[in-house]
Amino acid sequence: MKKRFITLLLGWLMATVIALGAKGSETQDYKHNIDGIERTYRLYIPQNIAPGAPLIFVLHGYGATIDHIKDKGFNEAADRHGFAVCYPQGSKDGRGNPCWNVGYPFQEDMKVDDVEYLCRLARILQKEHNLSKNNTFLTGMSNGGEMCYLLAYRGQKTFRAVAPIAGLTMTWMAEEYTRTRPIPIFELHGTQDRVSEWGGDPENKGGWGAYLPVPDAVDYWVKRNGCTTESTDTIPPRGEKSHLTIAHRYTDAKSGCDVWLYEIVDAGHSWFTEDFDTAEEIWKFFSKYLILQK
Known about the structure:
Blueprint (H helix, E strand, L loop, with lengths): L1 H21 L3 E9 L2 E9 L7 E7 L14 H8 L2 E5 L2 E2 L5 E2 L14 H15 L2 E11 L1 H12 L7 E4 L5 H6 L8 E6 L23 H12 L3 E7 L9 E7 L7 E6 L13 H9 L8
Parallel strand pairs: 3-4, 3-7, 7-8, 8-9, 9-12
Antiparallel strand pairs: 1-2, 2-4, 5-6, 10-11, 11-12
């Protein structure tokens, strides 16, 4: 009986230690008043994160919220690799839909500057949570992907690299911002996407505004960054519902800023989590550009 009691006690103690350790990771919602607008964001900080750790922003799509992207694998990747994750909430447009202001025709009345907002929020988080000023990155899906491109075109210096998922380059961006800075870019896009067409929409048939074909949008950054080498390989389907992925990697950039394009064959408008570990692939790209802390 005594031996059995000791065994049970040891088991309980071990379970308690594990449970207490799990509580080290934190996911909290915050609010900040920036430029007179109250903005909400969710922040995930893994257990025992190192001072000066990297920070990744993950942006939702049009009409979505931060609750729609809580299961995309970024928290798990953060636990594995030791970075923090911020999920900002977009403000509402005239239709009452949460979004990012990227210059859609129906966003003409929106005054919010989301590029400035995201850059300011990054600086706030870097300071308040002792996160890296150099190793801050941005990814986002659909409307969030358009924000990635807009930040790249605007030449900001806050985000070191961007990874649009099913994102588009609006024609107006390419026409307005002609003096861009090199920046590492990783685009993930399905060839059968009927929301963000792989082949572009120069006549604005979809109502989002005119935008470039995905290969043309990527080619701009290949040339701008001075990439001289292209390598291509494939990622086989993960399961019955997944798709073949053709990975185009443009490297040896004169600027040091490479460009990746994952062409997900026959895939639609998606985060592609059924095709591969999206968060892990994005971190694989971002980690190439980490600046070691002194």
